[in-house]
Records
---
Amino acid sequence: MPGYPYGWIWAGGFFLLAVIVVLSSPVVINGFVRRIGENDDAELSVKALFGLIRYRYKVPFMSMDGLAVNVDEQVSASGAGLNTWKEFNDKIDPDKVVSTIEKYKQILRLTKDLKGWIKDTLARVHLTEWRWTTSLGTGDAMWTAMATGAVWSVKTGILGLLSQMVHVKSGPVMEVHPNFSQPAFRTEWSCIAQIRFGYAILAGLQLLVRMKKWKGGVKAWQNILFRA
């Protein structure tokens, strides 16, 4: 039949183009944290496949309870036409922090060269936006000036360390405003990072292979992460 082979060629070319577009599409990660006085809120959102896959984690409220932090959490996810939404409360205390650290130490021991995997994955990440503004005051001019210098040092140190691990694509915006008139503290941080969908898939497969190379594999991870 005339033209029949060309139809398959066109279909194959279109399929190949679609795969290239999908693998080249960005996974966009947005992070946001704000503290004004005693009020805190934070949000992390991830979009992939041009918004077809979405994940959002939000902490609209945090409060101190002695040495513990009470956290209200909201999680929403959507993909393949399905949407889920959860809201729950959590308490972060010193015991939970120690337990979490211990869990990740065990994961580090169970996974072949996990640090190398993290380093290689971060090298594929492009930081396209970084904004961090802070306003603070202690009520005393000298201590406010010293605190301002200390905050600047912390900010530049964090950004310097980060720039060694990821690609910083645009000039970061960082500001520290001293308030000499009264005690005050306000900080707001936001960033946008991107990684190609293909690299994200590859990183996931590499992690899975590393997990399976050690005794227990994926099941060991699950036992550690979801253990009470």
---
Amino acid sequence: MIELYGADYSVYVRSARLALAEKGLAYKHVPIDVFAPEGPPADYLALHPFGKIPALKHGDATLYETVAILRYIDEAFDGPPLQPDDPLGRARMTQILSILDTYAYRTLVWDIFVERIVKTRDGTPADEVKIAAAMGAARTIITALESLCSGGSFLLGTRPSLADCHAAPMLALFQMAEEGSLLLKAAPRLSAWLAHFATRPSFQETAPQSRD
């Protein structure tokens, strides 16, 4: 039995869930809310000492850090391969994963999506200065991803990869903000990819239920 720990609103948990769905694997999703007032439970900290999500258990193996989990999901189980066959393709995949983790997550999700969409739901005004300050970095991120996008059905060609699984949850949230929608309209290959990937059963099945 594969057990995946984390909240369904997390883009990182959804990334792992997308990989599991694309591989056709059954798993048990164990909800963990790291934003709960009391923080993550003590038994979860035994799985992930940094208290982040997700974590994965498979038999005696325990993993945390999303990219490690993604690669394990692809390499440890049968099913459609989620990594390119050639060295350059795998390097491009790793490059995209690194861009997403190092630059995109904080800027696109927290500085823009959370400020523009989540924070304002209860009437709290968005921090316009924070959003404006993030736009330069966001433009660079989208331009970089557009340049790496194959222009095919998936980021790296004709079949989905771990790069698609990792990018789609972040960019889907980013697109919900007006600023994100406008930047993505200027990236035609990336926009077309996101629209296509959003129609896949894996993406629809992993839509967050509890919150965005």
---
Amino acid sequence: MSKLHFTTKHANEATVTHNWYVVDGTNQTVGRLCSKIAAVLRGKNKAYFTPHVDCGDFIILINAEKVKFTGNKLDEKVYDHFTGYPGGRKEEIAKDLQRRRPEVIIERAVKGMLPKNRLGRKMYKKLFVYAGGEHSHSAQKPQTLTF
């Protein structure tokens, strides 16, 4: 009896194509939206996904100021930052951060869902978040992506 030999095709930089997508954040829940964005940035939506290769696409998120939180998170969720100096811990609730810098909420959530290595940092650079409905990437001809 002859043996059948199947080989797995691994993606590499030459075979991967990076597409551009626009996602509208209006009335989307933060965590659910960010987990789907992180999956696309990693390339998990593609048939040739390979964990050690950057297979992901570019994501442009517009209307980040219109995302919503469930429950009491808008009033109770605390974002903190430590400057490295004594007494340098800064805290801010989600409502104030969304009013001041709405892009940061999405960026921090997506960054936490990506791998913590140089590949994850490369994937994170493919995310572009805008508070309003306008973006400056029309030359890339992004397609609309809905979740």
---
Amino acid sequence: MCTKAISVNIRALSEKLNVPMTAPKGSKTYKGADDVLPTDLTPVITHARPREIQFMRWGLIPSTAMDIKSVQPMFNARAETLDEKVSFKNLIMNSRCLILDAGFYERETQGNEKVEWKITPSEDEFFYKAGLWTTWQDRVSGEITESFTMITCDPSNHPFAKIHDRMPIIMNQAERRLWMNPNANKEQLLSLLKPCSEDCYRITENSRKPVSGKGRQSPPPMFN
């Protein structure tokens, strides 16, 4: 789920938040394209450096990995098992971040059609999504790669469940402050990992295509 996001205008973001940007580490550069995909660099703010926009690779590479090419990047992390997984359980206390983007896409199949939904902020210009990050260093070249994973939750009994069974953790201002608070305890942090209010986002249809070899059906009612 949530493997395509909408990029933000970095310069405008930096001015709005009144924080500087730090150049990406390593050989990659920020593309600034309309769509942000896994392994792309993405702007984040970490709880260790909350007054600075950094760029990290989408798809967490464990710091213990021997070779970046031999490990499957972890694009998303389930909130329900976050405190159980070896790759994540220590990061929640030491390596939290907010992922900044202007929205994201979800796909679903409806009968004979594939529908892509576009989810964007209802009031703000961008989303703050909860994530975890880490640093990996190449043992040969010494090159450093900072990467993150996006935390998702179960939206059962929530309107978002109409389009997908997983949902990113989108945080409001109060939740962001606690997530960024270096003195927050684990119980407080885990309590934040839940679906956001329906008022925080809007859903619109981005595209509708027939499943290969099948005809087009009448569109369903739009989400408001």
